[in-house]
Design goal:
Blueprint: E1 2-3, H1 10-57, H2 62-99, H3 105-124, E2 127-128
Antiparallel strand pairs: 1-2
Helix pairs in contact: 1-2, 1-3
Length: 138
């Protein structure tokens, strides 16, 4: 009988484990991004309030008014973009959590990792026995 070459390198197991670790941290990453975007929205809110108070309390000419309106539009646009991103991430997070509601990702990762290791060990113990051409394996 001929012992087979190693079928799978440990690196491939490490890649699978890294994939499940990444999957486990997806929800946390989304929470962090939502917090970051909410902080951005708060900053834009403050900037918009500054501009509005300038408009409310000071006299300015048409040119200065145009510049303030442009600054207000830019800040509002950035705020809207951040809020849209929050909405998208919240929607994705809800679907992700719905999909994995009854799944413990850490346990699943360990079970799959063990299954892969068992399969690799099984493949590494395989031996081939010639069926017809025994002369090839002398």
């Amino acid at each position: 009988m001929l012992k087979m070459k190693k079928a799978v390198k440990p690196l491939e197991v490490e890649r699978l484990e890294a994939l499940f670790n990444d999957l486990s941290s997806v929800s946390e990453d989304m929470d962090n991004k939502i917090k970051e975007l909410n902080d951005e929205v708060r900053i834009y809110d403050l900037e918009i309030q500054d501009i509005l108070h300038k408009i409310e309390g000071y006299n300015f000419n048409a040119s200065e008014g145009f510049l303030l309106a442009r600054e207000l539009k830019i800040a509002s646009g950035k705020r809207r973009e951040a809020k849209n991103n929050i909405s998208i991430i919240c929607s994705a997070k809800a679907k992700f959590e719905e999909s994995f509601r009854d799944v413990n990702l850490d346990k699943m990762s360990l079970r799959i990792s063990q299954s892969v290791k068992d399969q690799i060990n099984s493949m590494n113990r395989r031996k081939y026995k010639a069926r017809v051409r025994e002369d090839l394996f002398d």
